[in-house]
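3.2 Worked example (two chains)
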Amino acid sequence: MDKRRRKQAKTSSCCSEEVSSIEWEFINMSEQEEDLIHRMYKLVGDRWALIAGRIPGRKAEEIERFWIMRHGEVFANRRKELKRCNS
């Protein structure tokens, strides 16, 4: 095995950890940003880069994460729990 292959094997094995979506921090969006995301999603679907291009300072990953956290079943249950605890 040459040096390049050994180096690639080392880097690929150490960086394969994924962050669970449950560990994500909630992304705060303004009402205008949320409205635009909803309207754009109706028009273009889950083309996050296209939607992010319409919102200055936002990345496609942020938009997608926001959408999943807002509309995903796992996060819906967490939101209900947080509302009960805060009430």
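3.2.1 Second chain
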Amino acid sequence: MTRLPAKAHAWDLVSGSYWNSGYYGGPAPEHDVVFAGLMVAGAPTAVVGASTVSLSRAAQDAGAELHVLDFAPGILWEAGEWLGLPKDRRHLVDVTGELPERLRGRYHLVVADRLVNRFSAADLPGGLRGLRDLVAEGGTLALTVRFGWYDRDRQIHDALTPAEQRLFWRPDAGEIDYAALPDRDIPLPTWGGISGRVMRDHIRGRGREARFHKDELLAAIADLGGLDRTDLVEATNGTALVVLRKAALRKGEHHDPA
């Protein structure tokens, strides 16, 4: 049996319990309205991150041709079953790596809720490129992001010793390293019925995640190229929704595959 990468295994640990135990997460209400307005009946639509079942349901309710992408096979399967999604619309893909050719430029709309917060600093450029390359010419990429630390980051950091804090927060890289979580009991978030050792192993397995400011993300998107920002909507829960459009090629033009 192939051993899963630590991050993928971490998400498979919580799998369907992420939403079946009463925790649905998902975007802020202010962003739900914007996402709904972007969804078009019959249009190929990719939700990247199987845990965000609320966005997948919204796409189904809008009559869009929903596809779900994730790098963790367990949570992808659980979400697909919960949504009643045909197997050929479930894609085991890590967008920080090489995209399958069949998915490149396929989607009228690509959406992801706080996915970029789960990338390491090293993975961020590749992850943004992968998301961009899923989008069809003239299509839209809509991403929510939390700038700065999560509440759980502060909660965990404050419960650590100074030596542990130096391992947990790496300001030189702008990363939180959840792998530094100690074995002793410290306050951890509770999602539905997930708690205790499972939650600790899940968070620890997520490893390094980038924490950045708005200007840093927008600069990374600008450096990537191929996307024009059309909107940025901030919500009261501390997240922001960035809406980006991939320009349609004029006859005779070619995209630079950078």
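3.3 Remarks
The chain has two domains: 6-148+212-246, 151-210.
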